[in-house]
Structure formats: structure tokens, C-alpha cells
Amino acid sequence: MRLRRRVEVPLFLLLCAFTAVNLTPVGWAVLTSFKHPVDAFAVPPKLIFTPTFEFHYEVWVEKAFWHYLINSVIISASTVVVSVSIGTMAAYGLSRLASRTSRGVLFGILSMRMFPHILLAIPFFVLAKWLGLINTYPAMILALIAINQPFTIWLMRSFFLDVPAEIYEAAEIDGCGSWQVFACVAVPLVRPGVWVTALFSLLLAYNEFLLALVLTGPATKTLPVALAEYGAEDINYWTLSAAAAVGIMLPILVFMMLLQRHLVRGLALGAVKG
Amino acid sequence: MFLIPSATTLAAVLLYPLGYAIYLSLFNYDLGAGIERFIGLGNYGALLSEARFWDSLQRTVGIVSAAVALEFSLGLLVAYGLYRLSFGVRTLNLLMFMPNIITPVVAALFLRWIFIGRWGLLSGILISLGIFPPDFLGDPGWARATVVLADAWQFTPFMILVLYAGLNTVDQSQIEAAAIDGAGAWTLLFRIMVPAIRPLILFVLAIRMMDAFRFFDQIYVLTAGGPGTATETITLYTYSLAFRLLQVGKASALGMLTLLIVAGAIATMIAVLYRREKGSF
Predict the structure, then answer these.
(1) Confidence tier at A1 by pLDDT (50, 70, 90)
(2) How far apart are CA A148 and CA A113, in angstroms?
(3) What domain count does chain B have?
(4) What percent of chain B has pLDDT above 90?
């Protein structure tokens, strides 16, 4: 059922206006990141100014944000590798169980997704302190796997369910062991699903803040923690923190392009906020 | 057999810490002073008789319901708008979606730079129009409103996306039949489409409420619970108990209470869902 142009054009303009207002904070931050402080603090706000890359350079190179980027990459990548491999196995196992048996397990897993992260942050902190793991990569990676795993299993399971069970049965009749069925038949069939799950997990790990705030220290700080320390403290560092924030956002835009077809499935299962 | 690695990991990094949190919640455990003394349910008792706990709970419920209500109504309207549009939907959808996927800390800073007193974009615009702006982050009432808006900014796109996907699953013949009978745009939306996707709506509201209830990053960066305790939600209160005052035992008890409250709310919702929508799950 289509609308007539007379209705549709105003509707389109309205939606465009909504989008524009929505994106204003992003645009404003991008503009600020190219400003000298004089222009940034001008009232009324300036739209036309001489742009500078000075602060992007300063924050990423001189203020060592590249170091936090490396931390973020190490932590998120390790999380994804572990979480997605064990999660894929579990999801495959669950997808082959009778639905009555797996339902209980799945609801158990879903309820884990409900845990307030702050409730986990406290024992993580006490245990990590006790084991001397504060400010190390393993503590942060384990914590991220914990909050990542339920989501990974649910998302991967939804991809496995798209595969008809007859394919596995045929492979078993042909004499494949259960491990072979998994590795040679099931995983290749859901390979796109594995990539989607991995990207969503990566996004979740990259965006995580609360656990990183508690478990990382000067040597292992991730980008969100470094930025929060910088940006929330003092408005004098405005242009610098804007440059950092815009830099942190860039990889996410790439994620978004890669994931756009799968956003609904991933997000309904709670990708971004775990 | 395939479940073993995941189950072991979950037990070690999720269930064991949870058990440990329950254990901690029974102690007067103070990391700063080095006290560790078993007090049974003492922490729970202390919290339940404390004004700060009830205030933060009330504030959280207020902020969460305002934010989720705003996100849902706006989300439904925009999703329906997109549904009726025949061109440019993909691009608009993608652009609208951006705020949702940005790192929450980054998003909170972006909004901070809009709302911050004096130099923020909004204050700047108001000043140039000759209006004296309120201190959006410094005045208790405005700060609460800003926190709600910030949550809505980041999560309305999620609502739009899910509801738009839902609207597209509604049976086309039903819509056409209603349209032939002369149903207008609003009648179609509220009489045909919303009832058709009601399970999805309840599901997405439950998810969103659950996540909003425990959300931490944005408020921490925007107001850190201030001014005073004007925007201190239950999660922020737990954080400051545990990591500022180092009263780990009491904070664990508060965390457990949060979990119980959320679990109770979700259980009620599921019970209502099952009764109303028998067989739809």
C-alpha cells in the first residue's frame, strides 16, 4: 500500500529532520575536534573556522592514546577468539539437543544476560585483587568473556537453527564422527554467522566501560576508560577529548557498515550493551 | 560434549563470582579499613532501612520509565513513518541507527558537549537568541531530564530498528483489507499493526527496561550521579559504595537486591505475557 507523493514528501522531510537533529551531537563533536580552543569556546557557537589536525595528532600520539588503542585491540580480540569458539561449540551442541532439554539451558543462559554488570564487577574486583590480576590483560579478558558468552551462544544458536538437521544426519550415516560433523559440516555452513557473531562480540568488548574501569590500570587501560578520565574531568581539554572521541568512533562506523544487514538479529539479542 | 568448554568457563567466570558476591554480601567487608566480619543479613537490613537506597531506587524507576516510554513512543512513530515511506529507507535507517552503536562513553561525552553549561551547543544557541539557559547538568531537575534524553538519544534507534522489522512482518492482506474498509493511517497503526506485533513489543520493552535499569556508563560520564545525588541511580550508588567507599560487603548486598528487583519485574512480565499470549512463544 503506497502513499501519494503529496503525503510522502513531507513525511520524508520530517524523517530527515529527525535524523539531522539526532546526528547533531556527532557533527558538533567532529567540528570541535578540528577547532582551536578559541573557536571551540566561542559564544555564539562557530560553524566556520580554520580547521586544524593539531589535536588529533596530540591526543593520539603525544598523549599516548595509541597505547590505549593497542590495549583495547588486545583485550577485545582475545575475548572474541575465546568467546566465539567456545560459544559456537555450545550453540551447536544446544541446537542438536531435543528442544525440551535445551530450553531449560537456554533460559538459564538468558537469565545470566540479565545480571547487573555492577554485581559481577564487585566479585571480579575482589578476586582479581586477591590473585594479583588487577591491571593485567587476563582479568579483563575473562570478565568480558563472562558477559559475552550468553549473547554469543544465543546468536550462534539462531544461525545453527537455520540448518536443517537432515544434513547432519546424512553426514553421520556417511560415517562422520560427531566432532567431524561439527568441524567439517556444521561450521562451514554457518561461517557467515560466525563472522557476524564475532563482529558483534568485538563491538561489545570494545565498548565495555564499567568492568574496564574497575579491572584495568595504567598499563592496560582501554580507550573508553582513558577517554572518560580525560573528557569528563575538565572542559579545558575539550578539543583534545573531542579528537579522541571521534577517533574512537571511527572503527565503529566500519562495524556498522559491515553489520547493517544483521543489525536486527544481533541487537534484539542485546549485542551492544551485553 | 560440545557444551563442556563453555559450561566450564561460565561456571568459573560467571557463576563462581556470583556465588562469591552472595558470600561477600553476608559480611561486613571493608577493603579500606581491612574489616571482614560475618554479619548474616545485616547488610540487607541496613540497606532496606536506609533513605539513600529507597531514593536511588525511586529515581532509577523514574528515569527508566521516562526513558523507555519516550524511546518506545518515538520509536514506534518513526518506525511507522519509515514503513510508509517508499524511498530512502535504507539510508535513513542506517543514519538514524548510528547513535545506538557508538561507545556509550563517547556518546555521553558527545551529549555532554551539547548540554554543558555556558559552552555547550545548546546553551550557546540559547544565549545567542538572547535566552538565559538553565544549567542543564547542574540543576537537579534539568539533570534528570538530560539523563533521560541521553538514554533516549542512544536507545530510540534500537526501538526504531526492532519495531520497523516487526511492522514489516505484519500480514499484508490484513492491512489491505482494513485500508479498503477505509481505515486511516492511525487506525491502521493502532488497531491492526500494534496488536499484531504485541509479543515483540513486550519483548523489546522488557529487554530495554532491563538494560536501562542497570545502565551505568552514560550517567557516570554525564553527571556522575550529581548534582548531589539528583541522578544517582541504584547502579551508581552500588558503584560508589564498592569502589569509592570500599564497603564491598554492603555493595554486594545492594547488587543482589538489584538482581532480585530486576528478576522480579521480568518474572511478572513473563507471567503476564504467558497468560495473555498463550502459545505465541
Answers:
(1) very low
(2) 9
(3) 1
(4) 28
How does residue B274 score in pLDDT terms, banded at 50, 70 and 90? low
Min CA distance, A221 vs chain B (Å)?
14
- Asked whether residue B30 is domain-assigned, the answer is no
Asked if A24 lies within 8 A of B114 by C-beta distance, the reply is yes
Evaluate if residue A141 carries a pLDDT over 90: yes
Say whether B97 and A263 touch across the interface (CB within 8 A).
yes
Which residue stretches of B102-197 are H helix? Answer: 104-115, 121-128, 140-167, 172-180, 185-187, 194-196
Cβ distance of A143 and B13 shorter than 8 Å = yes
Q: Please report the sign of the dihedral spanned by the C-alpha atoms of residue A201, residue A202, residue A205, residue A208.
A: negative
Give the long-range contacts of residues B168-176, CB within 8 A, separation 24 or more.
B168/B83, B169/B197, B170/B196, B170/B197, B171/B196, B175/A1, B176/A1
Size of interface A-B (CB pairs under 8 A): 261
- The verdict on residue A195 lying in a domain is yes
| Residue A62 domain flag | yes
- From chain B residues 185-224, the ones with a CB under 8 A of any chain A CB are 203-204, 207, 210-211, 213-217, 220-221, 224
Residues of A in contact with B104 (CB under 8 A): 207, 209, 224, 273
Domain tally, chain A: 1
Q: Which domain holds residue A76?
A: 57-268
pLDDT over 80 at A268, yes or no: no
Measured between CA atoms, how close is A237 to chain B, in angstroms?
Answer: 12
